[in-house]
Amino acid sequence: MTDIGLIGLGVMGKNIALNIANKGYSVSVYNKTSQKTKNFVNNEAKGKDIHAYYDIESFIGSLSKPRKILLMVKAGEPVDNMIKKLLPHLDKGDLIMDGGNTYYPDTTRRINELKETGILYLGMGISGGESGALNGPSLMPGGSREAYDLVEDILLKIAAQTEAGSCCTYIGNGSAGHFVKMLHNGIEYGMMQGIAEVYDILRKVLKLSAKEIGDVFEKWNGGELNSFLMEISYKIMRHMDEETGKPTVEIILDKAGQKGTGKWTVQTALDSGIPAPSLSAAVEGRILSYFKEDRTNLSRKIIKKHVETKYDKEKIIKDLENSLLFSNLILFSQGLWIMAEISKINDFDINISEVLKIWKGGCIIRAKMLDFLREIIDEDKQNANLLNNEKTLKFLMDKLDSVKNITNIAKDFYIPALVHNTALDYFFSMVEENLPANLIQAQRDFFGAHTYMRIDKDGVFHTIWE
Ligand SMILES: NC(=O)c1ccc[n+]([C@@H]2O[C@H](COP(=O)([O-])OP(=O)(O)OC[C@H]3O[C@@H](n4cnc5c(N)ncnc54)[C@H](OP(=O)(O)O)[C@@H]3O)[C@@H](O)[C@H]2O)c1
Predict the structure, then answer these.
(1) Residue whose CA is closest, atom 11 of ligand 1?
(2) Maximum CA pair distance of the chain?
(3) Which of 80, 149, 177, 232 could be a cystine partner for 140, CB 3.0 to 4.6 Å?
(4) Is there an atom of ligand 1 within 6 Å of 10 CB?
């Protein structure tokens, strides 16, 4: 009898299985395409406590009770299909975990569908990609506490470890785990776009080579901007394409792909009524990148009147560093505000400080900034909007001139800087007492009799405008 079963031997599943076995647990594995299972046990898993099964019945028969099964299959229908196949063979108290990038409302639905069967269910976000899965990912399990308790030992051990502890914690009720993973990815899109915009300015304004940009990124990575994404970015800048002898980054087509988690984050933000323009801008940046043909044609039709470079290189590099810190903080503040709001609406009961702790290792958005954010959350638990905190405000104000300078330079050079610009406009909106929404209210009342409120007395008013 084995300790745990894993279904889905793709990039992630194989490495999670190896990780679990490396921590001293026995693992049963099953994959839809049996050849992949054979290859796995005869190669990477050879000599490990990993056992292959080629039909669901014998796979389930190999598991010690209560059975624990981790699904690492493609999100969506494959998860529903696998649950359907497993159910007839499972008993009350057995546990199914979905470790894929599932849209959290799907997890809510599955939990509700399984309620009557007595089968326990966990929706677990996993971050860290291929190497994280093998060496220690950040794990975001959500569902019933009873379900979590069944696998806590294993999860705590296979997760990344930092000086703050294991990068796994019980996230909360229902689909809280998949919700938090979705938000993680939304913030990830933003951080990636922010770095890409800085890269664009460094190459187009300062005319730095990829190698020189790598040097700048490496230096930043040694300071406040330390993060996994900064680290891989400097390594990317130095990588050379063997075929052409050029930096690899320069031969990659500028069309960014996406799998939907960023879009879901923005959709969730819009539904919750929490402003998240920078998270949204990052998704829009990828969508815009896709229109290569239009962009190429249009770029040849307009004359870009560049201003003469009269900038101080060192100052720009310092301002870019500050602008990235500013936009990263805004991205996190937008994401964490959505987290607080959705947690309240859905009774997820998410402990945001704990989430920040498990994001410190293993995951794609691990960054030094998380310590600062955690300090703020811990001292200011009531503030869903981090900008209400004095330390946050000071952090942003200290960098404001740099962000203004960078966004102005970007404009001078016709360089789009969606995340940096929206971060600045978000900040300006948040610190502005008088927005022009009074005119919008007047327009709405003019054409639709939608009424408005006044600043000088209570009540709802309508004007006959002409
Ligand atoms: N890659 C990452 O960095 C990463 C990070 C975090 C989370 N995730 C999530 O983890 C999950 C697995 O990702 P992956 O990168 O390992 O994917 P992958 O390499 O594409 O593997 C997909 C797995 O799903 C199985 N599968 C597909 N359709 C199926 C079906 N109808 N029924 C049963 N099994 C089916 C495949 O089986 P066959 O071999 O038979 O086709 C394969 O084992 C996804 O939800 C993904 O979004 C990925």
Answers:
(1) 100
(2) 84
(3) 177
(4) yes
Contacts of 21 (CB under 8 A, 6+ apart): 27, 45, 48, 49, 50
Q: What's the residue count for the chain?
A: 466
Catalytic residues: 181, 188
| Reported confidence tier of residue 74, pLDDT bands at 50, 70, 90 | very high
Cβ–ligand 1 contact at 101 (below 6 Å): yes
- Alpha carbon 231 to chain centroid, angstroms: 17
Q: How far apart are the first and last CA of the chain?
A: 82
The CA distance from 262 to 259, in Å, is 8
Q: Which residues, including other chains, have CB under 8 Å from residue 149's CB and lie 6 or more apart?
A: none
Q: Is 8 part of any known ligand binding site?
A: yes
Q: Is 33 annotated as a binding residue?
A: yes
372-383 pLDDT, tens digit per residue, is 999 999 998 888
Indicate whether 52 pLDDT > 70: yes
Our CA dihedral for 202, 206, 212, 213, rounded to 10 degrees, sits at: 0
Is 112's C-beta closer than 6 angstroms to any atom of ligand 1? Answer: no
260 within ligand 1 shell (Cβ under 6 A): no
**Closest by Cα among 391, 43, 263 to 383:** 391
- Render pLDDT for 171-210 as a digit per residue (tens, 0 to 9): 999 999 999 999 999 999 999 999 999 999 999 999 999 9
Q: Tally DSSP H helices, then E strands, for the chain.
A: 19, 9
Domain ranges of the chain: 4-174, 181-430, 436-466
**C-beta neighbour count of 51 within 10 angstroms:** 17
Owner of token pair 């669901």: 56
| Residue 299 buriedness (CB in 10 A; 0-12 / 13-18 / 19+) | exposed
Q: Is 397 helix (H, G, I), strand (E, B) or coil?
A: helix
CB 155 within 8 A of CB 141: yes
Q: How far apart are CA 259 and CA 185, in angstroms?
A: 10
* H or E stretch at 176: helix 176-204
Give the tokens for residue 33. 């395409």
- 436-466 CATH pick, 3.40.1710.10, 1.20.5.320, 3.30.2290.10, 3.40.50.300: 1.20.5.320
Instruction: Calculate the average pLDDT of the chain.
Output: 97
Query: How far apart (Å, rounded) are the C-alpha atoms in residues 96 and 69?
Result: 5
Q: For 89, which DSSP code?
A: G
* Atom of ligand 1 at shortest range from CA of 75: 45
Cα Rg, the chain, nearest whole Å: 25
| Superfamily (CATH) of domain 4-174 | NAD(P)-binding Rossmann-like Domain (3.40.50.720)
Query: Cis ω on the peptide bond leading into residue 137 (within 30° of 0)?
Result: no
- Per-residue pLDDT at 383: 86
Is 128 flagged in the annotation as binding? yes
